[in-house]
Amino acid sequence: MNLRTFLLGTCSAVALSGLAQAETLTIATVNNGDMIRMQKLTEDFTSKNPDIQLEWVTLEENVLRQRVTTDIATKGGQYDIMTIGTYEVPIWAKQGWLLPLDNLGADYDVDDLLPAIRSGLTIDGKLYAAPFYGESSMVMYRKDLFEKAGLTMPDAPTWDFIADAARKITDKNAEIYGICLRGKAGWGENMAFLTATANAFGARWFDENWKPQFDQPEWKNALDFYVKLMNDAGPPGASSNGFNENLSLFQTGKCGMWIDATVAASFVTNPKESTVADKVGFALAPDTGLGKRGNWLWAWNLAIPAGSQKVASAEKFISWATGKDYLKLVADKEGWANVPPGTRTSLYANPEYQKAAPFAKMTLDSINAADPKNPAVKPVPYVGVQFVAIPEFQGLGTAVGQQFSAALAGQMSVDDALASAQQLTEREMTKAGYIK
Amino acid sequence: MARNVSTQRKIVVTVVAWTIGILIFFPILWTFLTSFKTEAEAIASPPSLFFFDWTTENYHEVQSRSNYFLHFMNSVVVSFGSTLIGLIIAIPSAWAMAFSPTKRTKDVLMWMLSTKMMPSVGVLVPMYLLFRNTGLLDTRTGLVIVLTLINLPIIIWMLYTYFKEIPGEILEAARMDGASLSKEIIYVLTPMAIPGIASTLLLNIILAWNEAFWTLNLSAAKAAPLTAFIASYSSPEGLFYAKLSAASTMAIAPILILGWFSQKQLVRGLTFGAVK
């Protein structure tokens, strides 16, 4: 190919890219399994709505978050529908960046949405995003190892029981570790787990006047407990383990227990991926008897950015993707076990689903046990179980997460980690104007 | 004149060269091998190097999930387009600075390079607004413009250093023979500088091909190049290494093959010609 042909080709390709298209919805979405499945099933939607075309932008969670945040903050208008988490919904709705979903159709049945999930997406009585799938956290454990150690896992264990069992199961020579927990720094990594766990220990991020609480004894108890437990019964190098690292440890038979997202249940029980698929049991996330369980609440939701020109079509699509019929469609094509979990009460009442998904009841109980508007034992001024729904939290959570990860790695003491978390949170919250 | 090299020394040099070569190539080899494993084998510990059940399942999955050809064409247009436009602008400016420098030339060069020193994310929002207002968001034209601009300093610097090595007397002789400025650049300077221009071209195509900040942030569905294609295969929740490896192999294969072929041309070009 000579240079001239090439230049011509380049120029014509550049020119072609400018051509306009008919009514097309551009949907930004995260690349989790349930979303990928939805993409494959959209023919059902386009055949019912031949005047609407769909275009997908599928990205990894963190890239997606940066991408859609830039677009919505600058009113870029690149997307007609955005997939966002429960963290973003209340913040963006308050900014006026999202449209309320008022016209999802007569048969949508908003009241069927799980109350815990719905309440996190409702601001001033209006629903600003429709949940596509929801998750909480729970204990996954190895029934065979528990039996060998002569232990029985209760349905609702306490942290003391978990710690005791983890130490008994651990056999470091055989590379079996009693408990695998997140240690990798990040607001959505170790801080999701630790913030939720701290709730069970009576701790909270802020008091009613937004004063940081890392200098309180509850945080010290929680972090001390976690670091000691992980040193005694956790895998080596735990401070760099996130969801995926723990998933692979558990699937290869190296963890006695793993406390993490309920969505993991379908991975660890899948015999194609997991060597322990038939030996896994489930229990609620542990508590300390103070009335709160350390389980979080998360959902991926579809929302329409304010200023969208294609609201009616977008609402049609959201109603299709998060409606009851979609659950049936997935069940028909791919089986009940693959239906997106955690959004609708009717799904959990369905006997076929209960049979196909052994973790269904525990998932529902875990989601119901979380209360995003009232997450801690003491009162708090914020919404969110494993996060604080303020724009500053992403940066703060990651900075605090780095201190706690360092404490787990033994690079600093628990006291030093808490002191520096307190200091940096106070500084940021003062700068942001929450405290004087 | 060939030097006398002992066999022992030859062996040592060969072993060292191969070790370094394999070390550098290993991550690519590993990605390639992983792309043929199942997800469970991809995370198996200890990992197996060659003895696993080879499967092309990941490639099928990637093919069915994304429109590879669209992303590929976007990458080709954006990387080649931006590099060619960059060269057209950079050759005259590098000529000016190399052959008729002023006392400010060094400052100008340094100033151009200084634009590369700022982290890209610092200007993300202003750039995004500019693109929104001009309707360039998610267009190949927009990506060509931004990649031309960010790679221009490097192109000019590279060409400048190549041009500096060409004796000014040759150009002077052309002028004495009555060549105009454009003829001097096109018929005298450019042919002599072909090896330099070729290596600048190749390096900038690779840089533009791999550019993952602007191409990801300024594109959505239509203009997204292969960087966005890769970004849809990693995941904080769930196993993805095998699929990600398959996507990565597909994304780097074209540029790797291009590099392989043009490497020979480049080496020949560098050892040939009037100047060297």
From TrEMBL, chain B:
User: Locate the ABC transmembrane type-1 domain: which residues?
Assistant: 72-262
Name a single GO cellular component.
plasma membrane
| One Pfam family linked to the record | BPD_transp_1
* Cross-referenced SUPFAM superfamilies: MetI-like (SSF161098)
**Which GO biological-process labels does this protein carry?**
transmembrane transport
| Record key words, sorted | Cell membrane, Membrane, Transmembrane, Transmembrane helix, Transport
Q: How does it sit in the membrane?
A: Multi-pass membrane protein
InterPro entries named among the record's database cross-references: BP-dep_ABC_trans_perm, MetI-like, MetI-like_sf
Q: Where in the cell is it found?
A: Cell membrane
Which spans are transmembrane here? Answer: 12-33, 68-96, 108-131, 143-163, 184-209, 240-261
Spell out the Gene3D superfamilies in the cross-references: MetI-like
Principal location = membrane
Q: Which family does it belong to?
A: Belongs to the binding-protein-dependent transport system permease family.
Q: What name does UniProt use for this protein? A: Carbohydrate ABC transporter permease
- Lineage, broadest ranks: Bacteria, Pseudomonadati, Pseudomonadota, Alphaproteobacteria, Hyphomicrobiales
